[in-house]
Specification:
Rossmann fold; 7-stranded mixed beta sheet; 4-stranded antiparallel beta sheet; 11 helices; 11 strands
Length: 367
């Protein structure tokens, strides 16, 4: 971090400003590599290590920490998602699916942006490259931020100084209220164990007029009647088949959570192996296997491995419907601008008074 980044940070426990209490190592361009931050009000101290202010312990989320430090370990497998010619883009890309034709990210230009749950930063990098924000604050609970910083230094040196890497929690955000012009979190908040509060906290650090862009796993919606022309669910039997497929998938995940991590790794290696991939591509047997044990269809074994780990190992991965998420956005005064077709994603602007109720016969809404 740099001294100029200090105004973006605060004590996560009290919200009080922080000061730099010590600088033990600096780079040639004055980036603080090792040092300490301190709350002047309480004396609470927070370390700066590897250029990253730390407000959370990586042990808080050990499986995700393992994913980035042991499986990816600097290979930047998730960056394949940004390559539109790579199958990973079609399988997992969330940036384009939540871009709304680019309109959802244009507000970030020349502004201050927060990426919550950045991991190793593929979406932070893409936003920085394509939309030119003044500053991107990329926060993650894990040491994925260390991997991310290393990737920037190695592959994207032009972004050095444009990105502030922070290790912290969405439930104790180390940022003052109303700090950011743009806050986004794509495919992260449903892993926190309290998705709705995580969304509230994200909204709390957003300025009035700022924009929010979030995406979480979707609950399956099963229509009880499907007869009208153009409905996506072809039949009741197809709907039930989709539900049963997901039930088997979630049951398998619950069973895996009961066994030690090393046993789970063995399972992930099996379903990511070349023989399993070959079987999954056969017309009949592959369909049967995939019904019970859904696996990544990417042709590269390394990507299958990290993608399957992501799908099967997480402790928290709740699914949500639009009607559960929208009331929180309304409560936080987010006027929705777009709803992602690949459920569930919302893009909106923080517009105080937008949902103002009618008073004395007036029309409801912002004056």
């Amino acid at each position: 971090m740099y001294k100029s980044d200090l105004n973006l940070l605060c004590c996560p426990a009290t919200g009080e400003p922080l000061e730099i209490s010590s600088i033990d190592q600096q780079d040639a361009d004055s980036e603080i590599l090792e040092g300490e931050l301190r709350s002047a009000a309480t004396g609470q101290r927070y370390p700066i290590r590897n250029g990253i202010p730390r407000f959370a312990d990586s042990d808080y989320n050990p499986t995700w920490d393992y994913k980035w430090t042991q499986i990816d370990a600097g290979e930047a497998l998730n960056y394949w998602i940004m390559d539109k010619s790579d199958p990973a883009h079609a399988i997992n890309d969330l940036f384009d699916r939540n871009a709304y034709g680019g309109a959802a990210f244009r507000h970030a230009t020349n502004r201050v942006v927060l990426d919550i749950g950045c991991g190793i930063g593929q979406y932070s990098v893409r936003l920085a490259q394509e939309y030119g924000p003044r500053k991107v604050v990329s926060m993650d609970l894990t040491r994925g931020v260390d991997i991310f910083r290393g990737l920037v230094l190695e592959r994207f040196p032009e972004l050095r100084g444009k990105i502030l890497f922070v290790q912290g929690s969405v439930f104790a955000l180390p940022f003052p209220p109303n700090t950011f012009d743009y806050v986004f979190s794509l495919g992260v908040l449903m892993h926190t164990g309290n998705t709705l509060q995580a969304i509230r906290n994200a909204c709390g650090v957003l300025k009035a007029g700022g924009q929010l862009n979030i995406w979480v796993y979707a609950s399956t919606v099963v229509a009880s009647e499907v007869k009208e022309k153009g409905r996506r669910v072809a039949s009741w039997t197809r709907s039930m088949a989709e539900v049963l497929h997901l039930k088997f998938f979630w049951l398998g995940k619950k069973i895996l959570r009961l066994v030690p991590h090393r046993v789970r790794l063995g399972f992930i290696r099996l379903v990511s192996s070349r023989p399993w991939y070959a079987i999954n591509r056969t017309p009949v047997l592959g369909q049967v296997l995939n019904f019970f044990i859904g696996t990544s269809k990417h042709p590269d074994r390394s990507y299958r491995y990290i993608n399957n780990y992501d799908s099967w190992i997480n402790t928290w991965d709740d699914t949500w419907s639009e009607h559960e998420i929208f009331p929180v956005l309304r409560e936080q005064e987010i006027a929705v601008q777009g709803v992602c077709e690949w459920r569930v994603g919302f893009w909106g602007v923080k517009d105080p008074g937008f949902y103002r109720p009618a008073v004395d016969g007036e029309e409801p809404g912002r004056k």
